[in-house]
Predict the 3D structure of the following.
Amino acid sequence: MSSYCFGIDVGGTSVKCGLFKTDGTLVEKWEIPTRRENNGDKILPDVGDTINNKIKERNLDKKDIAGVGIGIPGPVNGKGEVERAVNLYWGFKAVSKEIEEYTGLPAKAGNDANVAALGEAWKGAAAGAQNVILVTLGTGVGGGIIVDGKIVAGEHGAGGEIGHAMVLRGEKEKCNCGNHGCLEQYASATGIVRVAGRKLAETDEDSVLRSLSNITAKDVLDAFKAGDKVAIDIMEYVGDLLGGALSGFAAVVDPEAIVIGGGVSKAGQPLIDCIQKYYREYAFPSCKNTRMLIATLGNDAGIYGAAKMVL
Amino acid sequence: MSSYCFGIDVGGTSVKCGLFKTDGTLVEKWEIPTRRENNGDKILPDVGDTINNKIKERNLDKKDIAGVGIGIPGPVNGKGEVERAVNLYWGFKAVSKEIEEYTGLPAKAGNDANVAALGEAWKGAAAGAQNVILVTLGTGVGGGIIVDGKIVAGEHGAGGEIGHAMVLRGEKEKCNCGNHGCLEQYASATGIVRVAGRKLAETDEDSVLRSLSNITAKDVLDAFKAGDKVAIDIMEYVGDLLGGALSGFAAVVDPEAIVIGGGVSKAGQPLIDCIQKYYREYAFPSCKNTRMLIATLGNDAGIYGAAKMVL
Protein backbone atom coordinates (compact mmCIF):
# COMPACT_ATOMS: atom_id res chain seq x y z
CA MET A 1 0.00 0.00 0.00
CA SER A 2 1.12 3.55 -0.72
CA SER A 3 2.13 5.89 2.08
CA TYR A 4 1.50 9.32 0.49
CA CYS A 5 -0.86 11.23 -1.75
CA PHE A 6 -1.30 14.77 -3.00
CA GLY A 7 -4.40 16.94 -2.63
CA ILE A 8 -4.59 20.02 -4.88
CA ASP A 9 -7.25 22.72 -4.79
CA VAL A 10 -7.17 25.12 -7.74
CA GLY A 11 -8.63 28.53 -6.94
CA GLY A 12 -8.91 31.70 -8.99
CA THR A 13 -5.85 33.36 -7.43
CA SER A 14 -3.85 30.56 -5.85
CA VAL A 15 -3.48 26.80 -5.99
CA LYS A 16 -3.48 25.16 -2.56
CA CYS A 17 -1.37 22.05 -2.37
CA GLY A 18 -1.13 19.36 0.29
CA LEU A 19 1.10 16.35 0.78
CA PHE A 20 -0.74 13.79 2.90
CA LYS A 21 -0.07 10.45 4.46
CA THR A 22 -2.72 8.00 3.27
CA ASP A 23 -4.18 7.91 6.78
CA GLY A 24 -5.13 11.56 6.30
CA THR A 25 -2.26 13.21 8.16
CA LEU A 26 -1.33 16.48 6.48
CA VAL A 27 2.44 16.38 6.08
CA GLU A 28 2.90 19.77 4.44
CA LYS A 29 0.82 22.39 2.70
CA TRP A 30 1.87 25.20 0.42
CA GLU A 31 0.50 27.48 -2.28
CA ILE A 32 1.46 28.52 -5.75
CA PRO A 33 -0.09 31.36 -7.76
CA THR A 34 -2.80 30.53 -10.31
CA ARG A 35 -1.44 31.82 -13.61
CA ARG A 36 -4.58 32.58 -15.55
CA GLU A 37 -2.90 34.35 -18.50
CA ASN A 38 -3.14 32.67 -21.95
CA ASN A 39 -6.41 30.95 -21.07
CA GLY A 40 -4.81 29.51 -17.98
CA ASP A 41 -2.71 27.07 -19.97
CA LYS A 42 0.13 27.17 -17.41
CA ILE A 43 -2.03 26.17 -14.45
CA LEU A 44 -1.84 22.40 -14.85
CA PRO A 45 1.86 22.34 -15.89
CA ASP A 46 2.56 24.45 -12.77
CA VAL A 47 0.70 21.90 -10.65
CA GLY A 48 2.72 19.11 -12.27
CA ASP A 49 5.97 20.98 -11.56
CA THR A 50 5.21 21.69 -7.93
CA ILE A 51 4.34 18.04 -7.34
CA ASN A 52 7.45 16.78 -9.09
CA ASN A 53 9.58 19.27 -7.16
CA LYS A 54 8.08 18.22 -3.85
CA ILE A 55 8.75 14.58 -4.65
CA LYS A 56 12.37 15.42 -5.43
CA GLU A 57 12.77 17.73 -2.42
CA ARG A 58 11.50 15.06 -0.02
CA ASN A 59 13.19 12.22 -1.84
CA LEU A 60 9.91 10.32 -2.19
CA ASP A 61 9.50 7.19 -4.28
CA LYS A 62 6.70 7.55 -6.85
CA LYS A 63 5.73 3.93 -6.19
CA ASP A 64 4.95 5.02 -2.66
CA ILE A 65 2.46 7.71 -3.78
CA ALA A 66 -1.18 6.75 -4.33
CA GLY A 67 -1.87 9.63 -6.68
CA VAL A 68 -2.96 13.23 -7.11
CA GLY A 69 -6.47 14.48 -6.45
CA ILE A 70 -7.36 17.89 -7.79
CA GLY A 71 -10.34 20.18 -7.21
CA ILE A 72 -11.37 22.57 -10.00
CA PRO A 73 -13.74 25.57 -9.77
CA GLY A 74 -16.18 24.32 -12.40
CA PRO A 75 -18.16 21.25 -13.43
CA VAL A 76 -16.00 18.14 -13.88
CA ASN A 77 -17.36 14.98 -15.49
CA GLY A 78 -16.70 11.40 -14.43
CA LYS A 79 -13.62 11.17 -16.68
CA GLY A 80 -12.00 14.14 -14.94
CA GLU A 81 -12.69 16.47 -17.84
CA VAL A 82 -13.80 20.09 -17.71
CA GLU A 83 -15.87 21.63 -20.52
CA ARG A 84 -15.30 25.14 -19.25
CA ALA A 85 -14.04 26.71 -16.04
CA VAL A 86 -14.88 30.40 -16.28
CA ASN A 87 -12.74 31.51 -13.31
CA LEU A 88 -9.63 29.92 -14.81
CA TYR A 89 -10.39 31.15 -18.36
CA TRP A 90 -10.42 27.52 -19.43
CA GLY A 91 -12.24 25.87 -22.27
CA PHE A 92 -12.08 22.08 -22.52
CA LYS A 93 -9.36 20.50 -20.39
CA ALA A 94 -8.72 16.79 -19.71
CA VAL A 95 -7.51 17.54 -16.20
CA SER A 96 -6.92 14.04 -14.83
CA LYS A 97 -5.15 12.97 -18.01
CA GLU A 98 -2.88 16.03 -18.10
CA ILE A 99 -1.88 15.67 -14.46
CA GLU A 100 -1.14 11.99 -15.03
CA GLU A 101 1.10 12.92 -17.95
CA TYR A 102 2.98 15.61 -16.02
CA THR A 103 3.53 13.55 -12.89
CA GLY A 104 3.37 9.90 -13.94
CA LEU A 105 0.96 9.40 -11.03
CA PRO A 106 -2.70 8.37 -11.10
CA ALA A 107 -4.84 11.51 -10.96
CA LYS A 108 -8.47 12.28 -10.32
CA ALA A 109 -10.22 15.62 -10.79
CA GLY A 110 -13.46 16.81 -9.21
CA ASN A 111 -15.49 19.97 -8.74
CA ASP A 112 -14.06 22.03 -5.88
CA ALA A 113 -17.27 22.21 -3.85
CA ASN A 114 -17.80 18.46 -4.20
CA VAL A 115 -14.20 17.83 -3.24
CA ALA A 116 -14.56 20.04 -0.15
CA ALA A 117 -17.61 17.98 0.86
CA LEU A 118 -15.49 14.85 0.63
CA GLY A 119 -12.87 16.53 2.80
CA GLU A 120 -15.39 17.39 5.51
CA ALA A 121 -16.77 13.84 5.34
CA TRP A 122 -13.28 12.36 5.63
CA LYS A 123 -11.49 14.47 8.21
CA GLY A 124 -13.73 17.42 9.00
CA ALA A 125 -17.03 18.06 10.77
CA ALA A 126 -18.58 14.78 9.61
CA ALA A 127 -15.38 12.72 9.91
CA GLY A 128 -16.09 9.11 9.11
CA ALA A 129 -19.56 9.64 7.65
CA GLN A 130 -20.28 7.90 4.35
CA ASN A 131 -23.29 10.04 3.39
CA VAL A 132 -23.09 13.79 3.72
CA ILE A 133 -24.59 16.96 2.30
CA LEU A 134 -22.27 19.97 2.44
CA VAL A 135 -23.67 23.41 1.75
CA THR A 136 -21.17 26.25 1.46
CA LEU A 137 -22.54 29.70 2.23
CA GLY A 138 -20.02 32.12 0.74
CA THR A 139 -20.27 34.76 -1.97
CA GLY A 140 -22.48 32.18 -3.64
CA VAL A 141 -23.98 28.95 -2.35
CA GLY A 142 -22.09 25.80 -3.33
CA GLY A 143 -22.54 22.27 -2.27
CA GLY A 144 -21.34 18.73 -2.46
CA ILE A 145 -23.08 15.41 -2.01
CA ILE A 146 -21.29 12.35 -0.68
CA VAL A 147 -23.00 8.97 -1.09
CA ASP A 148 -21.29 5.79 0.10
CA GLY A 149 -18.11 7.77 0.67
CA LYS A 150 -17.99 9.03 -2.90
CA ILE A 151 -18.71 12.33 -4.62
CA VAL A 152 -21.94 12.49 -6.62
CA ALA A 153 -20.62 14.24 -9.74
CA GLY A 154 -23.75 13.84 -11.82
CA GLU A 155 -24.34 13.53 -15.53
CA HIS A 156 -23.28 17.10 -16.34
CA GLY A 157 -20.97 17.63 -13.39
CA ALA A 158 -23.84 19.48 -11.72
CA GLY A 159 -24.24 17.12 -8.75
CA GLY A 160 -24.38 19.20 -5.58
CA GLU A 161 -25.33 22.43 -7.38
CA ILE A 162 -27.79 22.96 -4.57
CA GLY A 163 -27.29 26.72 -4.51
CA HIS A 164 -29.42 26.73 -7.63
CA ALA A 165 -32.37 24.80 -6.31
CA MET A 166 -35.40 27.04 -6.71
CA VAL A 167 -36.75 27.95 -3.28
CA LEU A 168 -39.02 30.90 -4.02
CA ARG A 169 -41.47 31.41 -6.85
CA GLY A 170 -42.10 34.92 -8.13
CA GLU A 171 -38.61 36.34 -7.48
CA LYS A 172 -38.07 39.35 -9.75
CA GLU A 173 -34.27 39.56 -9.57
CA LYS A 174 -32.17 37.20 -11.66
CA CYS A 175 -29.69 34.77 -10.15
CA ASN A 176 -26.20 34.60 -11.69
CA CYS A 177 -27.25 31.32 -13.32
CA GLY A 178 -30.07 33.08 -15.18
CA ASN A 179 -32.92 31.53 -13.19
CA HIS A 180 -35.08 33.20 -10.54
CA GLY A 181 -35.54 32.27 -6.89
CA CYS A 182 -32.39 30.14 -6.42
CA LEU A 183 -31.30 29.32 -2.85
CA GLU A 184 -28.11 31.31 -3.53
CA GLN A 185 -30.17 34.48 -3.88
CA TYR A 186 -31.07 34.35 -0.18
CA ALA A 187 -28.62 32.17 1.72
CA SER A 188 -25.27 33.37 0.36
CA ALA A 189 -23.46 36.31 1.97
CA THR A 190 -24.70 38.44 -0.93
CA GLY A 191 -28.17 36.98 -0.54
CA ILE A 192 -28.33 37.80 3.16
CA VAL A 193 -27.43 41.41 2.36
CA ARG A 194 -30.17 41.49 -0.30
CA VAL A 195 -32.74 40.10 2.14
CA ALA A 196 -31.57 42.66 4.71
CA GLY A 197 -32.17 45.50 2.28
CA ARG A 198 -35.68 44.26 1.60
CA LYS A 199 -36.58 43.69 5.24
CA LEU A 200 -35.24 47.10 6.29
CA ALA A 201 -37.31 48.75 3.58
CA GLU A 202 -40.45 46.86 4.66
CA THR A 203 -40.45 47.98 8.28
CA ASP A 204 -39.86 51.07 10.43
CA GLU A 205 -38.57 48.93 13.29
CA ASP A 206 -35.39 50.27 14.87
CA SER A 207 -32.22 48.30 14.07
CA VAL A 208 -28.46 48.69 14.48
CA LEU A 209 -28.26 47.88 10.78
CA ARG A 210 -29.83 51.24 9.87
CA SER A 211 -26.74 53.14 11.03
CA LEU A 212 -24.45 51.28 8.64
CA SER A 213 -23.76 52.65 5.18
CA ASN A 214 -22.69 49.37 3.62
CA ILE A 215 -24.27 46.38 5.30
CA THR A 216 -22.34 43.10 5.09
CA ALA A 217 -23.55 39.58 5.88
CA LYS A 218 -21.30 39.68 8.94
CA ASP A 219 -23.10 42.83 10.17
CA VAL A 220 -26.43 41.05 9.83
CA LEU A 221 -25.17 37.92 11.58
CA ASP A 222 -23.57 39.92 14.41
CA ALA A 223 -26.79 41.89 14.93
CA PHE A 224 -28.77 38.63 14.76
CA LYS A 225 -26.63 37.13 17.52
CA ALA A 226 -26.92 40.34 19.56
CA GLY A 227 -30.73 40.06 19.44
CA ASP A 228 -31.51 42.85 16.98
CA LYS A 229 -35.16 42.29 16.03
CA VAL A 230 -34.86 43.14 12.34
CA ALA A 231 -31.70 41.05 12.00
CA ILE A 232 -33.57 38.17 13.62
CA ASP A 233 -36.38 38.61 11.08
CA ILE A 234 -33.84 38.55 8.26
CA MET A 235 -32.16 35.38 9.49
CA GLU A 236 -35.47 33.64 10.26
CA TYR A 237 -36.46 34.29 6.66
CA VAL A 238 -33.13 32.92 5.40
CA GLY A 239 -33.30 29.99 7.84
CA ASP A 240 -36.78 29.11 6.64
CA LEU A 241 -35.72 29.04 2.97
CA LEU A 242 -32.44 27.22 3.70
CA GLY A 243 -33.91 24.78 6.22
CA GLY A 244 -36.74 24.01 3.81
CA ALA A 245 -34.34 23.41 0.94
CA LEU A 246 -32.10 21.16 3.04
CA SER A 247 -35.09 19.10 4.15
CA GLY A 248 -35.92 18.47 0.50
CA PHE A 249 -32.32 17.45 -0.27
CA ALA A 250 -32.41 15.11 2.74
CA ALA A 251 -35.52 13.45 1.25
CA VAL A 252 -33.38 12.64 -1.79
CA VAL A 253 -30.22 11.18 -0.23
CA ASP A 254 -31.03 10.87 3.52
CA PRO A 255 -27.54 11.78 4.76
CA GLU A 256 -25.91 11.00 8.10
CA ALA A 257 -24.92 14.63 8.49
CA ILE A 258 -25.50 18.02 6.91
CA VAL A 259 -22.45 20.26 7.08
CA ILE A 260 -22.67 24.05 6.76
CA GLY A 261 -19.51 25.73 5.51
CA GLY A 262 -18.33 28.97 3.94
CA GLY A 263 -17.85 32.42 5.43
CA VAL A 264 -21.44 32.71 6.66
CA SER A 265 -20.98 29.55 8.76
CA LYS A 266 -18.62 31.49 11.05
CA ALA A 267 -21.82 32.63 12.79
CA GLY A 268 -21.72 29.18 14.41
CA GLN A 269 -24.36 27.51 16.56
CA PRO A 270 -26.96 30.33 16.50
CA LEU A 271 -27.00 29.98 12.70
CA ILE A 272 -27.36 26.19 12.97
CA ASP A 273 -30.22 26.64 15.45
CA CYS A 274 -31.99 29.03 13.10
CA ILE A 275 -31.68 26.69 10.09
CA GLN A 276 -32.45 23.55 12.09
CA LYS A 277 -35.69 24.93 13.50
CA TYR A 278 -37.16 25.07 10.00
CA TYR A 279 -35.35 21.96 8.78
CA ARG A 280 -37.02 19.93 11.51
CA GLU A 281 -40.41 21.39 10.75
CA TYR A 282 -40.23 20.32 7.11
CA ALA A 283 -38.04 17.19 7.11
CA PHE A 284 -39.39 13.67 6.56
CA PRO A 285 -39.91 12.18 10.05
CA SER A 286 -36.97 9.77 10.01
CA CYS A 287 -34.61 12.56 8.87
CA LYS A 288 -35.64 15.17 11.45
CA ASN A 289 -32.75 14.41 13.80
CA THR A 290 -30.03 14.28 11.16
CA ARG A 291 -26.93 15.99 12.55
CA MET A 292 -26.34 19.55 11.33
CA LEU A 293 -22.76 20.69 11.81
CA ILE A 294 -20.48 23.64 11.10
CA ALA A 295 -17.62 22.76 8.74
CA THR A 296 -14.26 22.52 10.51
CA LEU A 297 -11.59 22.35 7.80
CA GLY A 298 -12.13 25.87 6.43
CA ASN A 299 -9.97 26.52 3.36
CA ASP A 300 -8.21 23.17 3.80
CA ALA A 301 -11.36 21.15 3.01
CA GLY A 302 -10.40 21.17 -0.66
CA ILE A 303 -6.93 19.67 -0.28
CA TYR A 304 -8.20 17.03 2.15
CA GLY A 305 -11.04 16.01 -0.16
CA ALA A 306 -8.79 16.05 -3.21
CA ALA A 307 -6.34 13.73 -1.45
CA LYS A 308 -9.17 11.40 -0.44
CA MET A 309 -10.31 11.06 -4.04
CA VAL A 310 -7.24 8.99 -4.96
CA LEU A 311 -7.38 6.68 -1.94
CA MET B 1 -20.56 -16.61 -13.49
CA SER B 2 -24.10 -17.46 -12.42
CA SER B 3 -26.89 -17.79 -14.98
CA TYR B 4 -29.96 -17.05 -12.89
CA CYS B 5 -31.28 -14.82 -10.11
CA PHE B 6 -34.57 -14.20 -8.36
CA GLY B 7 -36.36 -10.87 -8.02
CA ILE B 8 -39.08 -10.66 -5.37
CA ASP B 9 -41.44 -7.74 -4.74
CA VAL B 10 -43.44 -7.97 -1.52
CA GLY B 11 -46.72 -6.05 -1.65
CA GLY B 12 -49.55 -5.74 0.84
CA THR B 13 -51.76 -8.35 -0.84
CA SER B 14 -49.45 -10.40 -3.04
CA VAL B 15 -45.77 -11.17 -3.47
CA LYS B 16 -44.58 -10.87 -7.06
CA CYS B 17 -41.80 -13.28 -7.95
CA GLY B 18 -39.51 -13.41 -10.97
CA LEU B 19 -36.88 -15.85 -12.15
CA PHE B 20 -34.40 -14.03 -14.35
CA LYS B 21 -31.38 -14.82 -16.42
CA THR B 22 -28.50 -12.65 -15.27
CA ASP B 23 -28.65 -10.73 -18.56
CA GLY B 24 -32.07 -9.46 -17.45
CA THR B 25 -34.28 -11.85 -19.41
CA LEU B 26 -37.42 -12.66 -17.41
CA VAL B 27 -37.73 -16.45 -17.51
CA GLU B 28 -40.94 -16.75 -15.50
CA LYS B 29 -43.04 -14.67 -13.17
CA TRP B 30 -45.67 -15.72 -10.67
CA GLU B 31 -47.40 -14.49 -7.53
CA ILE B 32 -48.11 -15.83 -4.07
CA PRO B 33 -50.47 -14.27 -1.52
CA THR B 34 -49.00 -12.05 1.21
CA ARG B 35 -50.03 -13.73 4.47
CA ARG B 36 -50.14 -10.81 6.88
CA GLU B 37 -51.73 -12.69 9.80
CA ASN B 38 -49.64 -13.12 13.00
CA ASN B 39 -47.65 -9.96 12.30
CA GLY B 40 -46.81 -11.27 8.86
CA ASP B 41 -44.43 -13.88 10.21
CA LYS B 42 -45.20 -16.29 7.35
CA ILE B 43 -44.31 -13.86 4.58
CA LEU B 44 -40.57 -14.52 4.44
CA PRO B 45 -40.85 -18.31 4.97
CA ASP B 46 -43.39 -18.33 2.10
CA VAL B 47 -40.90 -16.47 -0.08
CA GLY B 48 -38.21 -18.99 0.87
CA ASP B 49 -40.52 -21.88 0.01
CA THR B 50 -41.59 -20.55 -3.35
CA ILE B 51 -37.94 -20.00 -4.34
CA ASN B 52 -36.88 -23.46 -3.18
CA ASN B 53 -39.84 -25.01 -5.01
CA LYS B 54 -39.02 -23.17 -8.21
CA ILE B 55 -35.42 -24.34 -8.02
CA LYS B 56 -36.61 -27.93 -7.59
CA GLU B 57 -39.30 -27.64 -10.28
CA ARG B 58 -36.81 -26.34 -12.84
CA ASN B 59 -34.00 -28.55 -11.68
CA LEU B 60 -31.68 -25.60 -11.18
CA ASP B 61 -28.28 -25.81 -9.50
CA LYS B 62 -27.98 -23.38 -6.57
CA LYS B 63 -24.38 -22.71 -7.60
CA ASP B 64 -25.79 -21.34 -10.82
CA ILE B 65 -27.98 -18.77 -9.03
CA ALA B 66 -26.52 -15.35 -8.18
CA GLY B 67 -28.98 -14.72 -5.36
CA VAL B 68 -32.33 -13.31 -4.32
CA GLY B 69 -33.21 -9.62 -4.35
CA ILE B 70 -36.29 -8.56 -2.46
CA GLY B 71 -38.23 -5.30 -2.33
CA ILE B 72 -40.12 -4.42 0.86
CA PRO B 73 -42.79 -1.73 1.35
CA GLY B 74 -40.96 0.17 4.09
CA PRO B 75 -37.55 1.64 4.92
CA VAL B 76 -34.71 -0.88 4.64
CA ASN B 77 -31.24 -0.12 5.97
CA GLY B 78 -27.92 -1.00 4.38
CA LYS B 79 -27.81 -4.37 6.14
CA GLY B 80 -31.15 -5.40 4.66
CA GLU B 81 -33.02 -4.88 7.91
CA VAL B 82 -36.45 -3.37 8.43
CA GLU B 83 -37.35 -1.57 11.65
CA ARG B 84 -41.03 -1.58 10.82
CA ALA B 85 -43.16 -2.20 7.73
CA VAL B 86 -46.64 -1.01 8.57
CA ASN B 87 -48.36 -2.57 5.54
CA LEU B 88 -46.99 -6.02 6.41
CA TYR B 89 -47.67 -5.66 10.16
CA TRP B 90 -43.95 -6.15 10.71
CA GLY B 91 -41.77 -4.95 13.51
CA PHE B 92 -38.02 -5.54 13.22
CA LYS B 93 -37.06 -8.06 10.56
CA ALA B 94 -33.58 -9.01 9.30
CA VAL B 95 -34.90 -9.63 5.79
CA SER B 96 -31.69 -10.39 3.89
CA LYS B 97 -30.46 -12.70 6.64
CA GLU B 98 -33.75 -14.62 6.86
CA ILE B 99 -33.97 -15.15 3.11
CA GLU B 100 -30.36 -16.33 3.07
CA GLU B 101 -31.20 -18.86 5.79
CA TYR B 102 -34.32 -20.15 4.03
CA THR B 103 -32.74 -20.45 0.60
CA GLY B 104 -29.02 -20.85 1.15
CA LEU B 105 -28.57 -18.13 -1.48
CA PRO B 106 -27.08 -14.64 -1.11
CA ALA B 107 -29.93 -12.18 -0.53
CA LYS B 108 -30.32 -8.42 -0.60
CA ALA B 109 -33.33 -6.42 0.55
CA GLY B 110 -34.28 -2.87 -0.42
CA ASN B 111 -37.20 -0.48 -0.20
CA ASP B 112 -39.76 -1.26 -2.92
CA ALA B 113 -39.79 2.21 -4.49
CA ASN B 114 -35.98 2.28 -4.60
CA VAL B 115 -35.92 -1.19 -6.08
CA ALA B 116 -38.44 -0.17 -8.75
CA ALA B 117 -36.17 2.74 -9.65
CA LEU B 118 -33.31 0.30 -10.13
CA GLY B 119 -35.57 -1.80 -12.36
CA GLU B 120 -36.42 1.17 -14.58
CA ALA B 121 -32.74 2.13 -14.74
CA TRP B 122 -31.76 -1.43 -15.68
CA LYS B 123 -34.38 -2.62 -18.14
CA GLY B 124 -37.10 0.02 -18.21
CA ALA B 125 -37.54 3.58 -19.45
CA ALA B 126 -33.98 4.59 -18.59
CA ALA B 127 -32.37 1.27 -19.56
CA GLY B 128 -28.62 1.49 -19.18
CA ALA B 129 -28.55 4.76 -17.24
CA GLN B 130 -26.34 4.82 -14.15
CA ASN B 131 -27.95 7.88 -12.55
CA VAL B 132 -31.72 8.12 -12.37
CA ILE B 133 -34.49 9.73 -10.34
CA LEU B 134 -37.75 7.77 -10.34
CA VAL B 135 -40.88 9.42 -9.02
CA THR B 136 -43.94 7.20 -8.66
CA LEU B 137 -47.27 9.00 -8.76
CA GLY B 138 -49.76 6.56 -7.26
CA THR B 139 -52.00 6.70 -4.21
CA GLY B 140 -48.97 8.37 -2.64
CA VAL B 141 -45.78 9.70 -4.17
CA GLY B 142 -42.79 7.38 -3.89
CA GLY B 143 -39.38 7.62 -5.36
CA GLY B 144 -36.02 6.05 -5.83
CA ILE B 145 -32.60 7.48 -6.52
CA ILE B 146 -29.97 5.57 -8.48
CA VAL B 147 -26.39 6.86 -8.33
CA ASP B 148 -23.62 5.02 -10.15
CA GLY B 149 -26.01 2.15 -10.82
CA LYS B 150 -26.83 1.67 -7.16
CA ILE B 151 -29.78 2.48 -4.93
CA VAL B 152 -29.30 5.40 -2.53
CA ALA B 153 -30.80 3.85 0.60
CA GLY B 154 -29.75 6.61 2.98
CA GLU B 155 -28.90 6.64 6.66
CA HIS B 156 -32.45 5.85 7.83
CA GLY B 157 -33.65 4.02 4.73
CA ALA B 158 -35.31 7.28 3.69
CA GLY B 159 -33.31 7.84 0.50
CA GLY B 160 -35.73 8.64 -2.32
CA GLU B 161 -38.58 9.67 0.01
CA ILE B 162 -39.15 12.54 -2.36
CA GLY B 163 -42.92 12.43 -1.95
CA HIS B 164 -42.28 14.10 1.39
CA ALA B 165 -40.19 17.00 0.17
CA MET B 166 -41.99 20.15 1.25
CA VAL B 167 -43.15 22.06 -1.81
CA LEU B 168 -45.69 24.50 -0.39
CA ARG B 169 -45.55 26.57 2.77
CA GLY B 170 -48.77 27.34 4.60
CA GLU B 171 -50.66 24.15 3.73
CA LYS B 172 -53.41 23.61 6.32
CA GLU B 173 -54.10 19.92 5.70
CA LYS B 174 -51.75 17.33 7.15
CA CYS B 175 -49.83 14.83 5.02
CA ASN B 176 -49.92 11.15 6.05
CA CYS B 177 -46.36 11.64 7.33
CA GLY B 178 -47.52 14.33 9.77
CA ASN B 179 -45.90 17.25 7.95
CA HIS B 180 -47.61 19.92 5.86
CA GLY B 181 -47.09 20.79 2.21
CA CYS B 182 -45.45 17.55 1.03
CA LEU B 183 -45.21 16.89 -2.72
CA GLU B 184 -47.45 13.85 -2.18
CA GLN B 185 -50.29 16.15 -1.13
CA TYR B 186 -50.51 17.55 -4.66
CA ALA B 187 -48.91 15.18 -7.14
CA SER B 188 -50.31 11.80 -6.06
CA ALA B 189 -53.63 10.55 -7.46
CA THR B 190 -55.22 11.58 -4.16
CA GLY B 191 -53.41 14.90 -4.32
CA ILE B 192 -54.64 15.67 -7.81
CA VAL B 193 -58.21 15.02 -6.62
CA ARG B 194 -57.65 17.36 -3.67
CA VAL B 195 -56.26 20.10 -5.93
CA ALA B 196 -59.25 19.56 -8.25
CA GLY B 197 -61.68 20.09 -5.36
CA ARG B 198 -59.95 23.33 -4.45
CA LYS B 199 -59.75 24.69 -7.99
CA LEU B 200 -63.40 23.84 -8.72
CA ALA B 201 -64.44 25.66 -5.55
CA GLU B 202 -62.37 28.72 -6.48
CA THR B 203 -63.93 29.33 -9.88
CA ASP B 204 -67.31 29.35 -11.64
CA GLU B 205 -65.70 28.28 -14.90
CA ASP B 206 -67.59 25.52 -16.67
CA SER B 207 -65.93 22.08 -16.56
CA VAL B 208 -66.80 18.47 -17.39
CA LEU B 209 -65.55 17.67 -13.90
CA ARG B 210 -68.58 19.42 -12.36
CA SER B 211 -70.97 16.73 -13.61
CA LEU B 212 -69.08 13.97 -11.79
CA SER B 213 -70.09 12.93 -8.30
CA ASN B 214 -66.79 11.33 -7.35
CA ILE B 215 -63.88 12.83 -9.23
CA THR B 216 -60.85 10.57 -9.73
CA ALA B 217 -57.34 11.51 -10.84
CA LYS B 218 -58.08 9.73 -14.11
CA ASP B 219 -61.11 12.00 -14.66
CA VAL B 220 -58.92 15.06 -14.15
CA LEU B 221 -56.21 13.74 -16.47
CA ASP B 222 -58.72 12.77 -19.18
CA ALA B 223 -60.34 16.21 -18.99
CA PHE B 224 -56.88 17.80 -19.05
CA LYS B 225 -56.01 15.95 -22.23
CA ALA B 226 -59.39 16.84 -23.74
CA GLY B 227 -58.66 20.54 -23.19
CA ASP B 228 -61.00 21.25 -20.27
CA LYS B 229 -59.91 24.64 -18.97
CA VAL B 230 -60.31 23.91 -15.25
CA ALA B 231 -58.57 20.54 -15.62
CA ILE B 232 -55.72 22.33 -17.38
CA ASP B 233 -55.51 24.79 -14.47
CA ILE B 234 -55.37 21.88 -12.03
CA MET B 235 -52.61 20.08 -13.89
CA GLU B 236 -50.61 23.27 -14.47
CA TYR B 237 -50.67 23.81 -10.73
CA VAL B 238 -49.56 20.21 -10.10
CA GLY B 239 -46.96 20.42 -12.88
CA ASP B 240 -45.53 23.60 -11.38
CA LEU B 241 -45.12 22.01 -7.93
CA LEU B 242 -43.81 18.72 -9.30
CA GLY B 243 -41.55 20.26 -11.94
CA GLY B 244 -40.15 22.63 -9.32
CA ALA B 245 -39.49 19.79 -6.88
CA LEU B 246 -37.80 17.66 -9.55
CA SER B 247 -35.56 20.56 -10.56
CA GLY B 248 -34.39 20.78 -6.95
CA PHE B 249 -33.71 17.04 -6.79
CA ALA B 250 -31.78 17.31 -10.05
CA ALA B 251 -29.58 20.00 -8.45
CA VAL B 252 -28.66 17.38 -5.84
CA VAL B 253 -27.80 14.33 -7.97
CA ASP B 254 -27.86 15.62 -11.59
CA PRO B 255 -29.34 12.43 -13.10
CA GLU B 256 -29.16 11.21 -16.71
CA ALA B 257 -32.91 10.68 -16.71
CA ILE B 258 -35.99 11.38 -14.62
CA VAL B 259 -38.59 8.62 -14.85
CA ILE B 260 -42.24 9.20 -13.98
CA GLY B 261 -44.13 6.07 -12.90
CA GLY B 262 -47.27 5.03 -11.05
CA GLY B 263 -50.91 5.11 -12.11
CA VAL B 264 -50.91 8.86 -12.83
CA SER B 265 -48.11 8.38 -15.37
CA LYS B 266 -50.58 6.57 -17.66
CA ALA B 267 -51.54 10.09 -18.80
CA GLY B 268 -48.37 9.87 -20.89
CA GLN B 269 -46.69 12.59 -22.91
CA PRO B 270 -49.13 15.43 -22.14
CA LEU B 271 -48.30 14.90 -18.45
CA ILE B 272 -44.56 14.91 -19.19
CA ASP B 273 -44.96 18.12 -21.22
CA CYS B 274 -46.82 19.76 -18.35
CA ILE B 275 -44.18 18.81 -15.76
CA GLN B 276 -41.25 19.52 -18.06
CA LYS B 277 -42.41 23.05 -18.85
CA TYR B 278 -41.93 24.02 -15.20
CA TYR B 279 -38.93 21.75 -14.66
CA ARG B 280 -37.07 23.57 -17.44
CA GLU B 281 -38.01 26.95 -16.06
CA TYR B 282 -36.49 26.16 -12.65
CA ALA B 283 -33.70 23.66 -13.35
CA PHE B 284 -30.00 24.56 -13.15
CA PRO B 285 -28.91 25.41 -16.71
CA SER B 286 -26.87 22.26 -17.36
CA CYS B 287 -29.78 20.07 -16.16
CA LYS B 288 -32.52 21.72 -18.21
CA ASN B 289 -32.41 19.11 -20.97
CA THR B 290 -32.28 16.05 -18.75
CA ARG B 291 -34.53 13.36 -20.26
CA MET B 292 -37.94 12.98 -18.62
CA LEU B 293 -39.57 9.64 -19.39
CA ILE B 294 -42.66 7.61 -18.57
CA ALA B 295 -41.83 4.37 -16.73
CA THR B 296 -42.23 1.30 -18.93
CA LEU B 297 -42.07 -1.73 -16.62
CA GLY B 298 -45.28 -1.04 -14.71
CA ASN B 299 -45.82 -3.51 -11.87
CA ASP B 300 -42.80 -5.55 -13.00
CA ALA B 301 -40.32 -2.77 -12.12
CA GLY B 302 -40.01 -4.22 -8.61
CA ILE B 303 -39.01 -7.74 -9.64
CA TYR B 304 -36.55 -6.42 -12.23
CA GLY B 305 -34.92 -4.07 -9.74
CA ALA B 306 -34.86 -6.73 -7.03
CA ALA B 307 -33.09 -9.13 -9.38
CA LYS B 308 -30.57 -6.44 -10.35
CA MET B 309 -29.66 -5.87 -6.69
CA VAL B 310 -27.88 -9.23 -6.49
CA LEU B 311 -25.97 -8.92 -9.76
About this structure: The mean pLDDT of chain B is 96. The first strand of chain B starts at residue 4 and ends at 10.
